[in-house]
Amino acid sequence: KRRASGVQCTMDFVEKSIQKVNQLGAGGGGGTDSKYFQTTKKGEIHELREELANPKMEKKKEAVKKVIAAMTVGKDVSMLFTDVVNCIQTVNIELKKLVYLYLINYAKSQPDLAILAVNTFVKDTQDVNPLIRALAVRTMGCIRVDKIVEYLCEPLRKCLKDEDPYVRKTSAVCVAKLYDINGELVEDQGFLDMVYDLLGDSNPMVVSNAVAALAEISETSELGQKVFQINTSTLQKMLAALNECTEWGQVFILDSLALYCPSDGREAESIIERVTPRLQHANSAVVLSAVKVMIKYMDLITSQDTLKALYKKMAPPLVTLLSSEPEIQYVALRNINLIVQKRPTILAHEIKVFFSKYNDPIYVKMEKLEIMIKLASERNVDQVLMELKEYATEVDVEFVRRSVRAIGRCAIKLERAAERCINVLLELIQTKVNYVVQEAVIVIKDIFRKFPNRYESIIGTLCENLDTLDEPEAKGSMIWIIGEYAERIDNADELLESFLESFDDETASVQLQMLTATVKLFLKRPAETQKMVQDVLTLATQDSDNPDLRDRGYIYWRLLSTDPEAAKQVVLAEKPNINDDSFTLDPSVLDELITHLSTLASIYHKPPSTFITGRTRMVPTLGGGAHDDEYEESDANITSDMMDGGMGGAQAAPPAMPAPSAGGLADLLGLDDEIAAPAAGGGGV
Fold first, then answer.
1. Cβ distance 121 to 154 under 8 Å?
2. Are the beta carbons of 498 and 466 closer than 8 angstroms?
3. Any idea what DSSP says for residue 32?
4. What is the DSSP string of 391-404?
5. pTM metric for this prediction
6. Is the pLDDT assigned to residue 257 strictly greater than 80?
7. Run of H or E residues at 329
């Protein structure tokens, strides 16, 4: 009885609990929570699937648009692949385009299902509407699936010979896309020959697309230039199409002409004559491509009169490019920089267009400054100096620094104008603007090296501004000047002592200059500076952690101790001359870059091989070396050679140092290179 009553109590408790839960779930008018788990909606994908199956065209089109929109924002709608492909059987071009767009996007992830659309492609390539035929061919080229490619060969073959030029031009580009997927198949099927035949097509658009396709294939093919060889027949057809095709078609044709080598000067002149009208084109890419062809072919023309006439025709279009937006101006300026290095005469009379405007972006100003220096000559140097002096009063510190250095570069480039440049620099020093004074000191040091024993009368003015120098390069330059002309500066020892007080706090480059300048001063005035040179050598060899400074200190100490004559020949040697750095690119590199005008190579000023294939070959420059990274391996070898040479063991204490005697010249160690040898740079930027 007890057990039966216990079971009954449990059942009553459960029943009451259920009633309470139902009461809690009932909202005023009754009902249960089960309604939250009941819905007529079956999800967005299900709704889209139902709409795609709708027989009404407008509903179906809206559904495909929704699918494309979802795909665009990154939603995965690949599960609708079969449903969308079923919509492909339609005469509506808009719907067909949308389906093809979906197909291109998901064919790679659903290659097996994509084969279902092959029959439709084949059928569409035989449609009476040329737009649909071309659309089918274009989509075929965009579906990058190997399984499908072999099914597309026959439809593509028919379209390459289609009666409508729109279909033919689309097919030509499709061959290039197909070659990227399976080049061997394209070659075996003879598509390359068919595209080559299109160069003789009557329609200029077909010709330009055939040129673009062959140029693209030749860049990636193992056959290289053999894929696209221009002969006399195709040359004439390309030139004929040049006047009638679109602007981008013109760019492709002109770029291909730039790779063609005319047989002689007469043929080069003939081609240039046909290309010259392109200089008047509104599109800057067409203009630069035309300039590229003309500059390349000019190498074959010997008549100076013909060249002068061409220079006059080329200058105005290049100047016009500088009236565009700043970004296009920058690209144009980078290209003009190369053109000026190759043919400076073209823009020799147009230097004023490269004067900076107050509202030019800084990157445009910097490029204009570079070209101004390249175009500076004795005829226009006064104009240039006035402009540079004006720039030196601007608010942008970096631009001011570049402008002051540009004055120094003009002095190094134009010997007759050097004195005028010095006078401008002295005027700028009088402004007492700190960074202007420091840059002026740096460039004057370079001018002293270029023209020794000419302008030393201004050293007094430089020494007056000694206290304002706080940048390492400016300090190093001033120390170099004091050491180099110590015999002309009465208080040279006092000036160097002022730097000696902060020797430990200076950068390595300043310390090296200080060491060399003190040794120079000692060799010229030994009686007064014996203690100073001993102090500096002690600081360099015993108190410094810098191995370069320590090693140089030991070399000097031993030279002065053992052979003062040799010390004079080394330390007081004649300095190597520094050269104008306006035209720094190696001629072979410049020629290569000229063939790549209006491409990224002309903006980077590096051959395409240095940034496309991932190689790190540096661009060689005249009189200048590449960056240290280029020779990383050779540096490692040098280091290992030095270590193998027996550099172990404790350093011997330096012996006592006798007073030096007079001696000869020979700069064997390049002792001033840290600061004084932007040799090919003349203080260049």
1. no
2. yes
3. -
4. HTTSS-HHHHHHHH
5. 0.74
6. yes
7. helix 326-342
Positive or negative: CA dihedral 544, 548, 550, 553? negative
pLDDT at 118: 78
Task: Write down the residue that tokens 């101004």 correspond to.
Answer: 372
547-562 vs 564-571: helix crossing angle, rounded to 10: 130
Lowest mean pLDDT among 92-96, 147-151, 271-275, 505-509: 147-151
Fill in the amino acid letter for 6: G
Query: Secondary structure of 218-283 in the HEC alphabet?
Result: HHHCCCHHHHCCCCHHHHHHHHHHHCCCCHHHHHHHHHHHHCCCCCCHHHHHHHHHHHHHHHHCCC
Nearest-5° angle of CA 579, CA 580, CA 583?
Answer: 125
User: Half-sphere exposure (CA, 13 Å, Cβ side) for 304?
Assistant: 1
CB 505 within 8 A of CB 536: no
- Residue appearing with tokens 């190597």: 576
- pLDDT of amino acid 657: 44
Distance set, CA 543 to CA 136, 140, 145, 504, 535 (Å): 79, 75, 70, 9, 11
CA 651 to chain centroid, in Å, comes to 48
- 8 Å CB contact between 517 and 482: yes
Lowest pLDDT segment from 14-28, 555-569, 611-625: 611-625
Query: Which CA distances in Å does 576 have to 61, 446, 641, 666?
Result: 78, 12, 28, 10
Shortest CA distance to 316 belongs to which of 353, 283, 344, 368? 353
Q: Give the CA count within 13 Å in the CB-facing half-sphere of 589.
A: 20
Q: CB–CB of 54/87 below 8 Å?
A: no
Give the Cα-Cα-Cα angle 148, 152, 153 (nearest 5 degrees). Answer: 125
The amino acid occupying position 628 is: D
Q: Confidence band (pLDDT; 50, 70, 90) for 372? A: very high
Nearest-angstrom CA–CA distance, 584 and 684: 11
Residue 370 in 3-state DSSP? helix
316 band by pLDDT with thresholds 50, 70 and 90: very high
d(CA 563, CA 661): 9
How does pLDDT run across 586-625, given as a tens digit for each residue?
888 998 899 889 889 999 999 888 887 643 333 333 434 3
Of 99, 100, 187, 177, the closest CA to residue 144 belongs to: 177
d(Cα 163, Cα 158) in Å, to the nearest integer? 10
- Of the candidates 621, 624, 596, the one whose C-alpha atom is nearest the C-alpha of residue 611 is 596
CB 515 within 8 A of CB 480: no
Residue 242 · residue 251 · CB < 8 Å: no
- Identity of the residue numbered 563: D
C-beta neighbour count of 684 within 10 angstroms: 23
**Pair of tokens at residue 298:** 């000019």
Q: What is the rounded average pLDDT for all residues in the chain?
A: 79
